[in-house]
Amino acid sequence: MIKAKALTHRFGNDEVLHCVDFSVAEGEFVAIVGESGSGKTTLLSILSTLLTPTEGSVKIIGDDTQNIKKIDDFRRKNVGFIFQFHYLINYLTVYENITLAIDKEHKTGIESLLEELGIKELHDRYPYEISGGQRQRVAIARALANRPKIIFADEPTGNLDSKNSQIVFNILKKMAKKNNITVVVATHDLQQAKNADTIYEMNDGHISNYN
């Protein structure tokens, strides 16, 4: 599903990834753990096509990312994103935030998706009217709305307490398993990372299996 080879990335003279090899199987739930500055967000950005590596290559769903001509269309069709900051639009309702950028044929499944995530009653509420945990569930719904093959989540529980963090990870794992979605999560929270099928650790731009 995802295969990265010899990824190296520099910001100016600062090398933040060092010849990283990384692969994820279809339907796998993978966590990348590491402290701030370890390189995990940079790796996630490259794997998800948001950033082009200085050196190395990434294949995603069989396509070399450097050869994908219509990258925005590719992302919309195949990839969902969840971030630490939910980036919901305050003047749009929950439903409007979720459906803002999805294809028309997928709108018919939004109500059942909201129900599965336990936020159906928030349909007409605005982000500033709901809790942080609820906003992150809305962000998950937005990521799932186009029925992607892969979800990339960067510190999705970074602003949540332990109870809501566990809820968010449980939802991600449940939805991924049900829909055969591949999930790659970057997190500093090792306890939550243990929900994943496989855990990798990043340290100073290098990656290894977590022991």
Question: How would you characterize the overall build of this protein?
Answer:
30% of the residues lie in helices and 28% in strands. The model has no long low-confidence stretch (mean pLDDT 86). The strands form two sheets. It has a six-stranded mixed beta sheet, with helices on both faces. Strands 2-1-4-5 form a four-stranded antiparallel beta sheet, with helices on one face. The chain has one domain (27-38, 70-209): 3-Layer(aba) Sandwich (Rossmann fold). It is built from seven helices and ten strands. With 211 residues, it is an alpha/beta fold.
- CATH fold-level name: Rossmann fold
Q: What low-confidence regions span 5 or more consecutive residues with pLDDT below 50? A: none
- The level 1 CATH classification is Alpha Beta
> How many strand segments?
10
SSE succession? EEEHEEHEHHHEHEHEE
> Quick one: CATH superfamily?
P-loop containing nucleotide triphosphate hydrolases
Q: Quick one: overall form?
A: globular
Q: How would you write the strand order of the largest sheet?
A: 6-7-8-3-9-10
Query: What's the structural domain tally?
Result: 1
Number of H- or I-type helical stretches? 7
Radius of gyration: 17 Å
Helix content: 25-40%
Taken as a percent bin, the fraction of beta residues is 25-35%
Q: Distance N terminus to C terminus?
A: 24 Å
- Given helix and strand content, the structural type is alpha/beta
Strand and helix map with partners:
Blueprint: E1 2-11, E2 14-24, E3 29-33, H1 40-47, E4 55-60, E5 63-64, H2 71-78, E6 79-83, H3 94-99, H4 110-116, H5 132-144, E7 150-154, H6 162-179, E8 182-187, H7 190-193, E9 198-203, E10 206-209
Helix pairs in contact: 5-6
